[in-house]
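Data availability excerpt. The first of two example chains:
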Amino acid sequence: MEFKHTSVLLNEVIDNLNIKPDGIYLDGTLGGAGHSSHIAEKLTAGGHLYGIDQDEDAIAAATKRLEPYKDRVTIIRDNYENAVARLKEIGVTGVDGILIDLGVSSYQLDAADRGFSYKYDAPLDMRMDRRQSLTAKEIINEWPETEIYHIIRDYGEDKFARNIAKHICIERQNKVIETTGELDRIVHESIPAKMRTKGGNPSKRTFQAIRIACNRELDVLQDSLDGMIDFLNPGGRFCVITFHSLEDRITKVNFKNNENPCTCPPEFPVCVCGKKSKGKVITRKPILPSQEELDSNTRSASAKLRVFEKVADVDEK
């Protein structure tokens, strides 16, 4: 199956990265290189793009797509949580722009054997990096009911989370839950019949929640943002595309705290905590897809872009 993915908010990302021809850039979620190919074409021989992805299929597709720019591109297979460390290992001391696009690619959703989608009956997998041992099957069959409940409630924001978790655990006592089709059926049977026809397939929230847990998506995001901001060169831009309210909230709060880290009580006349701003939030409100993009790519509907700029005269210690 060919790796296909439509890059969301492409023009908005390219515009907000303020790409310099001789700049150094990091795409922490390379995917099929949709965004990266447009970054690379703007670079001269003095510039360089580093692309990180943990999915071997994405790496193969990106390598092919970036072939015309191979003299100014380095591709690394890893999770973006390790991006800064991996770049430091090869002597990179800072970058002029960073992009992380947190969406699951169309390829991953449409490749039945990856087990991301309830649309296909396939083995429960959901690993973005198939080198890791933890799969959705293990979570569904071995994790405690209370933990499954919290995952579906918190990551899926599903009001029927408790009943879904209960039915999963009842079902697995009889036989191992092996496939996405089985999980889809269990979710449907856990939800009142009159609610199954509202808001699309009711399995969407549960599948999203299990995928997030399997790949530690929110933990990775939470743990990576500060280090990436620190890795920006003065004046560098950090673009984050989210597709989930919790991802967006984490990004929004982090950017705000890096802009104004002061912890002094508001009644203090001057700051005494000594914490200095690392930059400024460019997007007070997130940038959303245009109507034209929504019409051509329905999967962009929940996308939000937030942008942070490293302060040009930050006092690095």
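And the second chain:
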Amino acid sequence: MVPRRVAPIRDAIAGPGLFIVAALASALGVAGTYGFFVRTTTGQYIDESALDEAIGVYGKAGKAALGYLDALPTLAVVLGGAGLLYAAIVKRRWFAAAVALSSAVAANIITQALKAYVFTRPFRGIETLMENSLPSGHTTLAASAAAAVFLVASPAKRPFVAFAGSTFAIAAGGATLVNQWHRPADVVAAFLVVAACTAPAGWLIMRVGRRWNAWSGFGSEWAASRLWLSLPLLAGLAATGLAVSMLTRIAPSTGIASTTHYFWTGLSLIVISGYLLCVAGMWLFGVAARRA
């Protein structure tokens, strides 16, 4: 009998190179976000202005956002836990669930360590609370829960899970801004911390679970529809247009003072960064997965 040929590892999953680059780029993004928005006068002014102007949209939106934030820890634990338990018990992806959980825990620990022991907020002439709030803990909790479910999902389900999870995390980050809990940069840094932890965990999960990390590409089923790739791209472009419009209106040459322009710019930055990482994650994991 002729022995059956075993597919080489390179056919099962891409090498770790792209995942390492993604993790390093995310870590550098955290440092860059801190360096500009916390360590420079211009960055502090933009960030703090967005926070101050949030009072202008507070009202029913603020009450709804506050209710969402109050429920967020429970929502994150329930949704993330349910996804991991389903993967572990029903799909028998015990290793993947353990790695995904470890990644989420690591992201939250790193966020709290950076906020409390590493990053400081120097005075740069901007009237602000001097206590450092970067990265956002609430946003990290929401994003890490979504990322954990994304990691244990099959490749054909990941596009939908990525979009739904990113929307959940963006809503959490936006709610912290509306309620004046966090500045936009705090939210962006939280997204990047989660991305930095998710990338290496993702490669390990796909490397060990290469049998179930196979798909036929975008369009193979409803959850793999290109719609889930198009929606975050369109939302990101719309947010970019809004940010440019807001900043153009308050350019020094116009003589117009900002009322809520910086707020909408900051909210746009949250949407842009959240959905940009969403699309990047879809692409990275889609390229790495084995073709069925």
